């Protein structure tokens, strides 16, 4: 039987990942940090159109258009993004950040096929993923197997999932979750503080948590929750994040700030940093 992944010179090389995941991993392995711009396609912006936003973000160099949102992902929403990409010759992948199995209907390039490992609800730990497997069986969408861990304060997602929130002052708990995720075949790990989180993921011992998980578990690590500035980006990068999600800040419609945030994501790391 072929192994799901091999480790070459300390880097993880997956043998059965799809094209989108392989490209992400290629970038992570060469030391890049990935920027995931989380978009709500149903959001009404005041000054810009969704097209302006997508075109600008892609121009600034985001790595992934992550489609999510408080009301879930619709087929129409994904189609809007696909049309914008076609009209503007954009080849940034569209990945669904699902709230539930219903979000797998649209024709995105891939889905974060996730398990919320510290939810107290079986629905988010397993049931949604099992139902979602029907879409994988149809071969319509590439899955990116990911374990999602909600840390304090957790925000709305923490409440909806009824998460047993991960404390910031005891990194061992997060490390154990990450190690379990790896042992059970997850290929990506996501530390989530919650949208609008205060403290954000880069504040109040969040960086220590990121560094601890990164030190003990060799899985690409995505982080998010309250990242709204280039300074915040630099802190989570220094702590060892391989991927950074920004959601809410996009709604400020400040494209010059977004440009600076995206540039900070792609700045070279200082020597000796992860
Ligand atoms: C939420 O981690 C993401 O799921 C992004 O959070 O909206 O605060 O950027 P923000």
Brief synopsis:
The chain has 274 residues and is α/β, with parallel strands linked by helices.
Q: What can you see in these coordinates?
A:
By secondary structure, the protein is of the alpha/beta class. It has one domain (32-265): TIM Barrel, CATH 3.20.20.390. Helix content is 38%, strand content 19%. The protein is built from nine helices and ten strands. The strands form two sheets. The protein has an eight-stranded parallel barrel, surrounded by eight helices. A two-stranded antiparallel ribbon has the order 1-2. Strand 3 (34-40), helix 2 and strand 4 form a beta-alpha-beta unit. The radius of gyration is 17 Å and the shape is globular. The two termini are 33 Å apart. Bound molecules: SN-glycerol-1-phosphate. SN-glycerol-1-phosphate is lined by residues 38, 192, 195-197, 224-227, 245-249.
Q: Count the strands? A: 10
Envelope shape: globular
Whole-number mean pLDDT: 92
What would you give as the CATH superfamily?
FMN-linked oxidoreductases
Percent of residues in beta strands? Answer: 15-25%
Neighbour order of strands in the largest sheet: 3-4-5-6-7-8-9-10
Which cofactor or ligand species appear? Answer: SN-glycerol-1-phosphate
H/E topology pattern: EEHEHEHEEHEHHEHEHEH
Overall structural domain count: 1
CATH architecture: Alpha-Beta Barrel
Helical fraction equals 25-40%
Q: Which fold does the CATH topology refer to? A: TIM Barrel
Provide the low-confidence segments as ranges.
none
Instruction: Count the DSSP helices.
Output: 9
Q: Please report the distance between the alpha carbons of the first and last residues.
A: 33 Å
Major sheet summary line: 8 strands, parallel, barrel
């Amino acid at each position: 039987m072929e192994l799901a992944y091999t480790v070459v010179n300390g880097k993880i090389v997956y043998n059965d990942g799809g094209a989108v995941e392989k490209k992400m991993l290629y970038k992570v392995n060469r030391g890049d940090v990935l920027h995931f711009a989380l978009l709500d396609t149903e959001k009404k912006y005041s000054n810009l159109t969704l097209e302006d936003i997508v075109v600008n973000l892609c121009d600034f160099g985001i790595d992934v258009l992550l489609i999510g949102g408080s009301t879930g992902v619709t087929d129409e929403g994904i189609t809007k993004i696909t049309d914008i990409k076609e009209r503007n010759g954009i080849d940034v992948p569209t990945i669904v950040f699902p709230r539930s199995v219903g979000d797998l209907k649209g024709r995105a390039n891939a889905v974060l096929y996730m398990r919320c490992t510290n939810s107290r609800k079986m629905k988010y730990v397993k049931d949604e993923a099992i139902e979602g497997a029907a879409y994988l069986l149809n071969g319509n969408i590439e899955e990116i197997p990911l374990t999602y861990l909600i840390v304090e304060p957790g925000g709305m997602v923490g409440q909806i999932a009824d998460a047993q929130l991960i404390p910031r002052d005891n990194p061992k708990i997060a490390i154990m979750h990450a190690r379990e995720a790896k042992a059970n075949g997850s290929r990506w790990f996501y530390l989530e503080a919650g949208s609008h989180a205060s403290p954000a993921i880069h504040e109040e011992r969040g960086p220590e948590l990121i560094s601890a998980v990164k030190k003990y578990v060799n899985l690409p690590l995505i982080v998010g929750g309250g990242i709204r500035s280039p300074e915040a980006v630099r802190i989570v990068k220094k702590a060892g994040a391989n991927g950074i999600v920004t959601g809410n800040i996009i709604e400020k419609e400040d494209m010059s700030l977004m440009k600076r945030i995206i540039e900070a994501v792609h700045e070279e790391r200082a020597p000796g940093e992860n």
